[in-house]
Amino acid sequence: MSQLLYEGKAKKMFATDDPNVIRVAYKNDATAFNGKKKARFDGKGKLNNAICTMIFQVLKGKNLPTHFIEKISETEQLVKAVDIVPIEVVVRNIVAGSLAKRLGLDEGSSLGRTIIEFYYKSDALGDPMINDDHALAMQLATKEELAEIRRQAASVNEVLKDLFDEAGILLVDFKLEFGKLKSTGEIVLADEISPDTCRLWDKKTHEKLDKDVFRRDIADLPETYEKLLSRLEAVK
Length: 236
Hints:
It is built from 6 helices and 13 strands. It is of the alpha+beta class. Strands 8, 9, 10, 11, 12 and 13 form a 6-stranded antiparallel sheet that branches. A 5-stranded antiparallel sheet has the order 1-2-3-7-6. The chain has a two-stranded antiparallel sheet with strand order 4-5. Helix 1 (about 45-60) packs parallel to helix 6. The longest helix is centred in the middle third of the chain and has 24 residues, at about 145-165.
């Protein structure tokens, strides 16, 4: 049996025969509010794997570097091994969630420009927001690595805005993680991009097509993710 390297809220990571390749298994678990709200939904792992695979394939087609290699089963992927940079990157196009609360802005209002925020990856501290100076002082990344992370995050945003726009969906905001390839040290997009990590609204109705339906008890999570997958498949 493969060695379990790490188990997170939504995925398990296993060693393979190649030290530069990791097997990722998507779980059926859903969490919100830093793990305070939890549930399990049959089929969620399959849906997240399918959606994430599709998105990573689109990014690959645009020559954006990611850790993704291939989908190997309904719930599993192979990815390149990375050392995760301990910074969560949040890209915001429309006011929602914590930004609305923090700045007293109306949810759904336009920002006029994209905002890229950094958060220190620490469950114990609740992932506090930081800036470049904090990251440099804490030696989380170099100045050049932070610039590259910002550049890649902005590029991912442009590609995904176009993808979701074709499906009649607004990309409100989303979380990214980056890592350095163990083989070369290159900075690449890692973790996942899925409705667990994005806010996605129908362009006309603002119906939520992401994990907010679970956070706010709005609708059935698997049905929502199925709807999102179908809309993306229709424009792929």
